[in-house]
Amino acid sequence: MNQEIDDELRAILARNLERCGPIQAHADTDGKEPE
Questions:
Q1: Do residues 16 and 25 lie in contact, with contact meaning Cβ atoms separated by under 8 Å?
Q2: d(Cα 7, Cα 24) in Å, to the nearest integer?
Q3: Rounded to the nearest 5 degrees, what angle is found at the Cα of 11, between the Cα atoms of 23 and 32?
Q4: pLDDT tens per residue across span 1-35
Q5: Burial degree of 4 (CB within 10 A; 0-12, 13-18, 19+)
Q6: For residues 20 and 5, what is the distance between their CA atoms, to the nearest angstrom?
């Protein structure tokens, strides 16, 4: 995996966790981007 992509995904997950909680965050990142 590309390190830059991994860091970007971690940042997106962190924002989603703050906004929606862990369950919704995992659903949001399943094959589509929230932004």
A1: yes
A2: 20
A3: 60
A4: 588 989 999 998 888 777 755 555 555 555 565 55
A5: exposed
A6: 22
